[in-house]
Every structure is written in structure tokens, then in C-alpha cells.
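Hey,
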Amino acid sequence: MTEQDVIIELQNVTKTYQQGKVEVHALRGMNLMVRRGEFLALTGPSGSGKTTALNVIGALDTPTSGVAKVGGVDLSTLSRAQKSKLRRDRIGFVFQAYNLIPVLTAYENAEMVLRLQGVAPAERKQRVMQLLSDVGLGGMEHRRPNEMSGGQQQRVAIARAIASNPVVTLADEPTANVDSATAEILLNLMVKLNEERGVTFIFSTHDPRVVAKAKRIVHMIDGAVDTDEVRTT
């Protein structure tokens, strides 16, 4: 692993929450390095710190201690505005609840980040139409979320997440709200995007189907990495 390959780095990261009078230690000295192009699943029981780890990587949460880097940038050195820009430009998010804007079409939801970035209209159109085609939504660009199935909405969310060619795409339980057949389709889609476009994915998941597709499995217990397995086949 060369220094240039490493796009995510957590060094002895801790995260402690105060819930009333109780301290909750969500992360306890977590260490993780992720290379460009990985297809990685964070697994472990509820409360093991998977989602907190994703939130730290996504600059949605600040570590209590330790160092978190994305693309070589130490997140602790960034202002709130700089973190917002980092999330917009360099990190894609896929949530289990889709988080699409109901009044916007599939095209408009997928194009949102590019619009915020000030990408020219002609380039936006070319990129978004290609993306929608890549995720199997060609011809559905004018549909709004309430006119699409859950699986189709999650495809829009995936297109939106990778539209800006982010450093990494974070997927928090992306198959939780779809049926088994749809989950398989979505997972195969993300594998294809990983293999053909080089999109780096980090999943937080309980789903054995996601784990089965992952090329690297990081099992967490009590807020830290317990085992880290890279599959060679």
C-alpha cells in the first residue's frame, strides 16, 4: 500500500457521547486505512461503532481524540464550512432511507451536487444522463420519488452519491429497506460501479448479502476493529 493509495485513515480514533449522566464510548481507539478502489464492509453487532465510524469518515461527526484523514486531509484542521465543502465535493453518501428530495425528479436529485458545484449545464446533463443509464434508470429521469419503487429510489441515491466522482462513497445499511431481490440487484450494481468505474465503497451493514460481496471485511466490536480480512478471490 503506497501513501498515494491511502484515501481514508483513522489513527487511534475515539468518540464519546454524553447521554444524560452516562458516557457512551462509541469508538475506542479505532485504526483503519482504506485504499482507493476498495469495496469494504464494516460489520459487527449493534452498538459496535460502525455508523459512528462512517460519520467520522464523512466529517459528520468529530472524534473525541485521534486523527481522521480523508484524501490526506486531517479533518480536525477544517472549519465547518470547509467540512461542508469536503462532503459536497469528495464524499458520496448512500443512506438506508434514500434521502431524496420529494419534489425533485430523479434527474434533479442526481444532478444536485453538480449544480451546487457550479458545473456547466451541458456537462451536468451529459454526466447525469450517463449515470442514470449506468444505474438502470434510463428513461426514468422525469419520475419523482413517489413514482418509483424503493429499489429505484436507492438507484437514484447511488447516482447522486457518485455524480461528483468522490474520493469515497459511504453506504450506511443501503439494503435495509428493500426486498431480497432488489438488494441483490443493488449490490451487483455497486460491485459493477466499483469494478468498472473504480468507485470506492465503505459499507456499514448487518446484511450477510453485503458481506458476501465485500472484498474486505472489517469486523468491529466495542468501538474498535476486531478482525480485518481481505479476500483474494
